[in-house]
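Hi everyone, sorry if this is the wrong subforum. Our group has a chain we'd like a structural model of before ordering constructs, and none of us has done structure prediction before. Sequence below.
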Amino acid sequence: MRYLHKLFQEQRTTVGRWIRQRRLEECRKELARGGRSSRTVAAVAQHWGFISPAHFSRVFRAAYGMSPREWQALWREPVGAHDRAIDGRDPAALVDPAGALMDDKACAPGQGGARHRA
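Answer:
Right subforum, don't worry. Here is the predicted structure as tokens:
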């Protein structure tokens, strides 16, 4: 266990932060799926282990620069509507071609550090 924490420390993160980031990424993916059978933001958050919807909204906004509801609404808009800006930002600039947000971090320690593209 100590070795595991050392690996994460070398990447300037912790095991807990890495796990939370993976959970946030899964929430982000699920919220983007949309469709008629999509769950509410609170249901998605609870499914991925976030007990408090308020806490989930805060950490989601801190990680991705918009609320979970804004993110979900972005992907629920009709085709072509994604060209509109949200809060003055071009939505296409928020997501790279692989579907990851431009400020996502690397998946795990030892994978070359952060993929931060500001």
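For your construct planning: Residues 96-118 have pLDDT under 50 and may be disordered. Residues 46 and 52 are 8 Å apart (CA to CA).
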